[in-house]
Amino acid sequence: MDTLAAGWQPTRAAAPFTRLVWSELRWIFRRPRTLVVLGVLGAIPVIIGLSVHLSGSTDGGPPNGEAPLFVTFASSALALPVGTLSVTLMFLLPLTVAMVGADAIAGEQSHGTLRGWLLAPVTRGRLLTVKALGVAVAALVAVTLMTSTGVVTGFVLGGTDGLFTLSGTSLTVVEALGRIGITISWVAVQLFAVGAVALAISTFTEHPMVVVAGILAGDILFGVLLMLSAVDWLHPFLLTVSWSALPDVLRDPIPTGTLTEGALRAGCYMLIGLSIAYARLTAKDG
After folding, report:
1. Are residues 139 and 97 in contact, defined by beta-carbon separation less than 8 angstroms?
2. Which of 49, 50, 55 lies closest to 87, judged by CA?
3. Hey, what long-range contacts does 19-25 have (CB within 8 A, 24 or more apart)?
4. Distance, CA of 237 to CA of 174 (rounded, Å)
5. Which residues pair with 170 in a beta bridge?
């Protein structure tokens, strides 16, 4: 009996998946910098809408053909959130997701807290799933917050009569909200693709700033490559090539070709990024 007791080792039960996800989300949204960034994102549509409205740059009528979205910002609860997302998608939103992805793995490695996950115990696949869900939720929250403040600001400043499309047609409130839902989903998918790449880079370093710098460098590089006709054969492989098509949701009917292509391209980036991250985490386990 004593021999059996001496050779017995307690087994550690795996932590419930929902508890791990909840712990990750609390860790993300309790960080002061996360709250500050979300506050800034939520204020941007309000600032833009008020600025354009007070400057008198819009008359509340339908847009004139290919007029810039800023012309209709203050008079439309549809154009304000879509236009704001279109502008911030080029830099600020990817920066936000890159920051969350950098902290997810590299940040925890630098502070030594990643070992706590492995003592739970947590498999590498479950660890990556929890981290990926955290990044996805952060991306969705950021986009939804910006869109919500944009919609509210647009309704306050322009009411429900200024829901015009770029084609000159008028939408009902329900139709406008449906298009805003499409916008939120599409932008969140693009940002999660950025987050997947950030997670992949995060497995190669213990320095979160390296991850953020890598994402921003890639964003800038993709923008430069898109301006070079000599490498137009490379454009279909660049994640950002479809981002300029976001205002298509303001057309009637919506041209779905570029938006669908952009969603599929983002899915490929997600698959590649998460696969690299999983391979790296598995290799570290060995």
Report:
1. yes
2. 49
3. 20/117, 20/120, 20/122, 20/126, 20/130, 21/130, 21/133, 21/134, 24/130, 24/131, 24/133, 24/134, 25/134, 25/137
4. 35
5. 164
Backbone angles phi, psi at 16, to 5 degrees: -60, 140
pLDDT digits (tens, 9 = 90+) for 216-228: 999 999 999 999 9
User: Which H or E run contains 66?
Assistant: none
* CA-wise closest residue to 58 among 166, 162, 209: 162
DSSP state of 231: G
Phi then psi dihedrals of residue 141, to 5 deg: -65, -45
**pTM of the predicted structure, to 2 decimals:** 0.87
Rounded Cα distance between 25 and 30, Å, is 8
SS3 state at 164 = strand
Phi first, then psi: what are they for 164, rounded to 5°? -95, 150
Give the pLDDT mean for 249-255: 90
Residue 16's pLDDT band (boundaries 50, 70, 90)?
A: confident
**Cα-based torsion angle of the residue sequence 253, 176, 250, 168 in order, rounded to the nearest 10 degrees:** 70
pLDDT at 107 over 60: yes
Structure tokens at 215: 């994402």
pLDDT tens-place string over residues 37-59: 999 999 999 998 888 877 765 55
Question: How many helices (DSSP H) and strands (DSSP E) are in the chain?
Answer: 12, 0
Rounded-to-integer distance, Cα 112 and Cα 103, Å: 12
- Indicate the average pLDDT of the chain: 84
Contacts of 146 (CB under 8 A, 6+ apart): 41, 42, 44, 45, 81, 84, 85, 88
- Other residues' Cβ atoms within 10 Å of the Cβ of residue 63: 20
Confidence band (pLDDT; 50, 70, 90) for 14? low
